[in-house]
Amino acid sequence: MTAATSTDPAPEVVPSVLVVLVVRDAADRLRDCLQGIAAQTYPRVGILAVDDGSTDGSHEQLVHALGEGRVIRNEHPLGLARAFDAALTSAVPAEADFLLLLHDDAVLDPEVIARFVDATQLPGVERVGIVGAKVVDQEHPRELRDVGRSADRFGHPYSPLQPGEIDQGQFDRVLDVLSVDPCAMLVARDVWRDGGLFDERLGEDGALDVCWRARVAGWRVLMTPLARVRHRATGEHDERPTERSRRYEEDRAALATVLKNDAFLTLLWVVPLGLALTLFRLVYLTLSRRFEEAYDLLAAVGWNLAHLSGTLSRRRRVQRHRRVRDHVLRRFTESAGLRLPRWFQTAERILEEQREWGEEEADEPAARRLGHRTVSLVSAHPVIVASFIAALVAAVSVRSLVGPGPLVGGALPAFPSSPSGFFAALVSAFRTTPLGGTLAASPALGAMGGLSILTFGSTAIGQKVMLVGGPVLAGVLCYRAGARMTSRPGPSVVAAVAYVLSALTLSAFSDGRIALLVALAAMPPIVERLEVAFGSDDPPSGRWRFVAGLAVTIAVAVAFVPGVLLAVGVLTIVQLVFGDRRRRGLAALALALVGAAVLSFSFVPSLAAGGGRALGSVIGSLNPWDVLRLALGGGPGTWAPALFLPVAAVFGLALASGPRRAPALRAAVTASIALPLAWLSTAGYLPAPLANAPVYLTLAATAEALLVAFGLASTGGGLERESFGFRQIGTGLIALVLGGGILLQSVAAMTGGWAIGGLEQIPPAWAVVDATSAGAFRVLWLGAHDGSSFPAPGGDPVGVVSAGEASVTYGLTDRDGVVAIDTARPFAGSGPDALEDAVRQIVLGITSHGGALLAPFGVRYVVAPAGALPPAAAAGLAAQADLGAIPAAGLDIWSDASSLPPATVVKADDPLRSIVSSADAGTIQRFVPPAGSPLAQVEGGWSGPTGGGDLAMIATEYDGAWRVVGSDADPSRTFGWATALPVSGDTATIDYGAQLPRTIAAWLLAAVWAAALWITRKPVPR
Amino acid sequence: MRAGGRGVLALVLAALAVAGAVAADRLGPATPGAPPATDMATSGVWLCPHGGGSGWSGTIAIANPGANAVDVRLTPIGSGAPGAPIEVAVPAGREVLQEVPATQRASATYVESFGGWVGVGWQVSTTGKEVGLGAEPCAPGPSTTWYLTDAATGQGHQAFLVLMNPFAQQAVYDVTLYQPGRPPARPEAWTGAVLAGGRSVALDLDKQVLGRDPVGVEVDVSKGKIAAGSLGVTSTGGVTSVVGAPALSSTWYLPVGAGVGQSSVAVLVPEDDGALFSGTLLSSQPAQAAGNLTEVQQSGRSTAAYQVLTTGAAAVQLTTQQDVPILAALRSAGRSVDDAATGGVAAPAPAWLVPPTVRGDPALPGLVIVNPGTDAVEVTLRLLPEGKADAGEPVTFSVPGQHAIAAPATFLAKDPMGAVLVRATGDVVALGASTSEGKHGLTMYGLAAGVPVPAVALPAD
Description:
The structure holds two protein chains of two kinds. Chain A is of the alpha+beta class. The two termini of chain A are 38 Å apart.
């Protein structure tokens, strides 16, 4: 093809246009492209083609069509940017008034170039530098592909189009835009001469950069709808493998574009904000196991750092030609990358659908119209609708928890002051919380510490994020489990909402039971994966990946609530009886449990300590009606309407049909087993390691939610075509129950007072303990064995002291109350055993020297809910001569004024040594704690002045690795469980001499988790 | 499974759930498990707010009725720092008399026992300007409320309230003084008063309510725990002391013996409403009304004294109508200058340990056994002698119902300073009532009620 000709003599003012076509391996589409060029009506058109190393005959086609002289041949592919640059090196482009940069997969309508040139000469519109076309899909020309773009503040292109949006003339006006589609882009000569064309480093993503640069230089960038270009869908023709994801290329180009084109003052806020958002994205990608995407994001930032000098040199050139301030360009940028417009556009689209339905039903009565619209909206967009409503309900519900201060109250554990507190406890070879010992901390601490780091290093924010995010995560994972098992998003959404609004979830949130919320989140995936394991179909993600995923899920749940293993046991029994492929399922489960054990290898001994004490829990409700409605105790949403979930589950079982019958039956059996187990746990009929009402209730809630999903999924559609009967009645009833229940539970959540909150959630009487005592001490919490927890900040009981009618639950904390670093770690060992024995002697009234018996434990206060103790235990406590009652409203408090600090140095004479070396309570009760010099707890041990004392008494479980720094003296066992070391001099520092193995184990644990998460990562399409 | 079948199954499961809940509701929680076998850290404490004075001597009598030796630690308490603990071992079936400081009005002794049960009583005495003996059982534990009613601040009487706090935690207390015919007094200095840990204090009642007889005392402890006792000294030299009562009762047993037969029963009614009560005199004769104590109406928040004449071993049983709680004490005139007083006991028991009420030789030891029931009971006395003295054989005798009789003098004469273990086939009340020293052993007069012995502390028969 030669230069375009026209029958009419072109007036001299007609500008010349040179089409620069870049072709690569386009033999199958080049013909259409060339024909489009040939059909142009514009009179002064030339063409120059660049064959970018084609090997499929494209070169021959070009030569044949255009002639040898109009084809530039690159022997090796250089990419679009360099190919265009190669064209500009010839003399021809410099002669043209405009260049039309054209891709080989773009097909021009005949008027395109004429309309482009027209756009540059619009009256009153000056300095038009770049013109783009209305780009439509080549195969489906009614489908819009591009109508010009803006960008967010961080350089990501932003199109106003929805995917697949139909061209209805809605964009048919000349638009002043930030950039246009590079597949067919008219560029004025002065633009590319002053600023150049594409940044060769950015590849195909450099179009925004070119246009932005032109804008900075004062040129207009227009999109004219009169010029229509048909373009193939992205990826249809370009099947070349790339090393990085598409998102990497976009992120890389976006940052480079901003760095080059934004003014300095703009960069001062855009860069920090962009980095913060990048951090957020990184967190999200990491938490959702999209590690490759996270890596790509980091790589994009890294690329820009590595190429910063090149970017800055290009920036200097851009800024040299700057004629427009950034604020002038602000109308072309979107809000700070949060994509809110997308949300509004989605809402707009939904409203549009509603409007259309409304028009179709214009003749219907208003009420019926509204009903139809609601049904259509919910059925078409169940997730969006549920998310929107859930966000509203959640926002109202947690409004009282928003604030700068940390949360307290309920059973909420106190978080350490910094994330390092989690990691220090995780790595520490000895336990720093009451009575010490060497039981390893739960891997959950790593997760909590990591999340705290991500929340700007604030554990207070991390605590709130975990608490508020817990129910959300539970709902999302319940939805996903339901959707996978039913293939129906609508019913799954309803089931998830019912799950989140169950009495159990609400009470767990109310009491701040973060660990239980994690268990609530993990239980649906566990149930779903066990269904798959024992089901007839193979896991869709491959067997090993499936096993690894199950192992990770179990390990995460067990790290927070070890009792989840009991639920796994129940599920396994149910599957062994009712499952399809028992042998395969059992094998997969066994492998997963082994995998979970590997992922928790350092924590496994902690799980086994005390005969599996970690598995049990003593909280729950003795009221069987509470258990039926899945309530642990009191709190918002634990009222009678909470029965909606179990009642709906019954309907769900009745309605489940087809392939959902069998899993529904298994879920029903699971719930039927779990509910009695929950009550039996609290009522004391189960052995302690098997008694865990919260876990059984979690299992029951999951099973019931899934029954709801099964039932609703089985009723969907076609009811009106069936004869009236059970299905219609059942569907109506389940809808009624669920609707009413969800509504009432939502109201309860929004209006109820949570047990957590500010300092007002702590009983005023606690000030007697916390505010009037100096130094370190411990608090012994006692309560009735009725499933209740202690008043804040006592948390949940850690065990039961069996003493007949005087039996009590107990817990031991420091002045901060229950702490998060003890999550899932059992209170077991020689120290707790000795403490239980001491408490037993006290509540039975055998001794009158309870204070002396408690003194070695560092217990300065004994606290119980007012009037809650069994009469026999209260009498036993009252009989303790050396425990003084302190008047306090709401709490019963006894003071052991003579107790030892948790670590102290005393001057020990022979009688004292005789007593402290004894393990016999009969001897220990003669203990009269001498005045001593307290040692402060420091990282790795204790330190402080000796005050002239010669024996350091440490209320931590004896271990031979304890040592006095600078001394060869061996530790000795005191009171049968604690530690003492001889000291001398003015100061003493005591540390643990066997830290290295635990440090190595911690690193190994991190490596194992990294491997597991990598195996189960979400793959990214390249 | 067909739809109908699933519906039935769902209904069955729902019905089972409801039935299970009903059954669980009826079943209730499991019976708490018995405590596991463990080494018992048996211990006990006795608080002895005995008081004292310049030149006075104090003795703590510790008796071990059990089959095993018991370690005891005595800590002298006073207005200053506690004294060095004294550790003694009390052999099985024996008594230890331990001298303790009693040179301050506030003197007190904290007694801790380890490994078994012991009964503890005190004696304070003086032979100087003040002559007399005060004997009482110690308090078997601290409390947050104490009542006393035997004090007198009339002419010739000086009364002290001895409060002891042997524990590390300080105590905060309020004192209310009840008096005849006047409203209660709440001395400002004794309201919200602090008693430091390891200290005792003697409050001079004469400085607050002079010229009253009897003076009732209520001590309310808002923080910590203490013990209280009264110490009375007469200008003629007599000494009385009574340990406080931690609680009121509608019935009081006030045995008496060895005196001249003139007794005064002091009654404190701390409640707002008055009390209607009657006294019955139990003795070797059939029961009869005690003096004028027949349906006596005493106004609330008041004290009053009622004279009673007795002969030999006797007891006044005071009972209120409608179970109105009161406090009673008995002061008895001795044969010499020394009077004696007792707070009595609120309830009978089948076993008592009676501390010695004898100061020294010569002595006329006495023991009163009261059977408030209607049926006769067999009573066995066993001597718990001090040191290596011969315990002799137990003696058994019968006490008719509604009678009070004296123990055989020959039995007590084996060791007048010994404690006596009293075991009966029914509920009785036991009290030591002796005179000692001086001419014919009549100078020092002491009354001391026994302390009930818990069943686990009793030796096998």
